[in-house]
Model the fold of this input.
Amino acid sequence: MTVRDGKRWNHNIHYHPRILRAIPDGARRALDVGCGEGMLARGLRLTVPHVTGIDLDATGIGLAREHRDDIDYILGDFLTHPFEPASFDVIASVATLHHMDAATGLARMRDLLRPGGVLAVVGLARSVMPGDLPRDLAGVVAGTLHRAVKGHWERPSPTVWPPPVTYSQMRSLAAEILPGSRYTRHLLFRYSVIWRKPQE
Done:
């Protein structure tokens, strides 16, 4: 990543390394769904030769295109853009799935992934259970400490709050649509789903 990228921090950027560690060996084509101004896409490009970022937000895409790189930034709707099925070795998405119907989004990502490819999602969900309170309080404390040390960068893309899907609903959706996926709930109000598409 650029020096400027390296100085940024927020709850989403905190989990970029989890996405980048999931890139499969030999990956040639990557898709960043909801790429915003392109920070994760640029991280993917350090390993993957051909990276595409797509986002509905014109401001974010405009900022992404200001960078001197060879990433293909598309202003458009991931759900309807005419990508070829099974055409990406890695598909990444951070804080985007709650902007669409989660089941539809996961299924679309699954279908665009090549056999043997990896889907890596970091997303937002809603706490609803009384048992969530201690974890959420710990997340507030941890987030406050991170911001005190690292500052906080606000991405230019639109926000959706509260997320429409709960953590338990997201876990169930991932298990149903991506059998064998690894779902993890994280401290800083995020979850991740990592899935390798079976070879045909």
